[in-house]
Amino acid sequence: MAAPHKSSQMSTDTHAVKVEEAPTINGNSAKLTNGEKRNPAATLKSQPKAKTTGALEGAEASEKLTGAELKKKAKAEKAARRAQEKQAKLPAILPDLKTPKKVETLEEVGRRGSAGAPPGTPIIKSSHKPTGSTQKSMPLRPAPPPTTTGTVQAKKDNKNVALFGHLYGQPRRTTIAAAGKDVHPAILALGLQMSNYVICGSNARCVATLLAFKRVIESYVTPPQNSLPRHLTSHLSPQIEYLVSCRPLSVSMGNAIRWLKLEINDVDPDTEESKAKADLCEGIDNFIRERITVADQVISKSAAEKIQVGDVILTFAKSSIVQQTLVEAYRKGIHFRVIVVDSRPLFEGKHLARALADLGLEVQYSLTHAIDHVMKDATKVFLGAHAMMSNGRLFSRIGTAMVAMMAKESDVPVIVCCESIKFTDKVALDSIVSNEVAPPDELIIQGGSTMALTTWRDSPNLQLLNLMYDVTPADYINMVVTEYGSLPPSSVPVVHRLSTNG
Question: Cα separation of 325 and 260, whole Å?
């Protein structure tokens, strides 16, 4: 009975075969039993079959994948192939680095650092093993220093005051270089005269502009296949752009240009060109006569009535309408005295003081730093205007607001003489939003023994601001004298509406 038991145990051991894993071939492993020997030839013969089996399994797996998964898988394979191609091309693109001067490699730096290092410091060694290639080790290049020259230069060149940065535009034109070919010679001369203050003052600039446009119209010839009303308006655009590049337009100039464009648009296209041009030139003359010349006469007569014997009239800078008012009162035989307050850099009050003194009036000339002293003697203040805003505020030469404020504190009435052509529908709350910035170099005193501001552009913390105008609140103004009569500042929009619609 023991023998069968032994044979059954042997059969069990025979079936209990030990399994070993064969080396992997193309991702497939062949399993060998302990009764089989490793045969390389057999392994190689079994490789195609395993490969075929793997391909069939991959095909079956690909059939089970969705379209999105297949697309994602193809995209990943494509990216992998591109990465391999880039790595293969990289050694061919990079040339051998040849340097005439000996440059320390990483190993040399490590040896040099370890020689002077304290005990216990690990020595730096290169992880690259020497090979038979002749390619040199990559040299160490020092990092370039940070470039701050551009930033310093930008800060040095930026001399504009940040608060008034929106007012800075192109530098004022002082030559006729790069002027458009369509700009008339009369406009070229006018622009330079206004830029250099040869023609200064709102009325003078407005009259000179209209007379220059009159010459442009006289020499204008309508091109073929065009009409005068349509083409002449576009022909005036380069003329206006040139004037703006020399100096910003005044409010009176803007109103006059708008009126002229409306007159051109109202010309009948069937009208003969010579007659249409003659009508426009005649309209310009009438506009100057009615809106400026006659208006000044009416205002001067009305304002002169406000001057009484023994008055001390204080005025600021130079206004043509104020000068005409003072002359009108003097010719009436009224004996009074004039105080002219002036300021840099234009010193316009010098011309007014000289003209009045030559006429025979008693004139006192002072600068703004003495306004508190001279205001004690004044009985009335007469001011000119660059523009009257719709909210009743006065927009005039910078320093006017200070004079009006001092007059208000001293209880001296302030009278503004202004033509309706200077009225605008715009509203001004301060002199920051809208203003004109003149070249800062005008503030430098020329011809002095010591000119401290000559090198102001080289001083990094120095900026010069040369504003042309300021805004006077309506509370400081007692009366505005116009060709429509004397009225309070609150009636400015009403007069502007009447002058525009009339």
Answer: 29
